[in-house]
Amino acid sequence: MSARNGVPDDDAYWQRPDPNSAASRPEGPRPAPDPVPQYSGPPRTDPPPANWRPPTVQQAPPPRSLPPQDLDALDEAERSARTVTYGVGLVAGAVALILLCLLCARAIF
């Protein structure tokens, strides 16, 4: 690379090397790599004893049956829960509306 005023010439970097220089000459033949060792397989294991058995797991008993459901009582409980939920929501909404009216009235007057 040549430099003019300390600034390198950008095109000189991308030029091909001189074919007569030592850096452009190919090297001699490379030596062949060492042969890859062959895999001989896993090591042999000792066989288990003659009276050996795998561990067994005891079978769990079958599940018990659930008690019967009273569908009419469940429906009544759901209706009463919905009534309580709506009641609490209406009271909370009324309190919020009253507070909002008080704050707006105070800001206006």
Give descriptors for this structure.
2 helices, two-stranded antiparallel ribbon, single chain, mainly alpha, 109 residues, 4% strand, 2 strands
Shape: flat
Order of helices and strands: EEHH
Mean pLDDT: 84
The rounded distance between the terminal residues' Cα atoms is 84 Å
Radius of gyration computed on alpha carbons: 45 Å
Number of strands: 2
Strand % is under 5%
State the secondary-structure class. mainly alpha
What is the count of helical runs?
2
The helical percent reads 25-40%
Largest sheet: 2 strands, antiparallel
Detail the poorly predicted runs: none
How is the quaternary structure best described?
single chain
Q: Give the strand line-up of the largest sheet.
A: 1-2
Describe the structure.
The chain is mainly alpha-helical and 109 residues long. 39% of the residues lie in helices and 4% in strands. The protein is built from two helices and two strands, in the order ββαα. It has helices spanning 10-14, 71-108, and strands at 3-4, 7-8. It has a two-stranded antiparallel ribbon. A hairpin with a 2-residue loop joins strand 1 and strand 2. The chain starts with a strand and ends with a helix.
Reconstruct the topology from this structure.
Elements: E1 3-4, E2 7-8, H1 10-14, H2 71-108
Antiparallel strand pairs: 1-2
Structure summarized in a few sentences:
This protein has 109 residues and is mainly alpha-helical. It has helices spanning 10-14, 71-108; strands at 3-4, 7-8. It has a two-stranded antiparallel sheet.
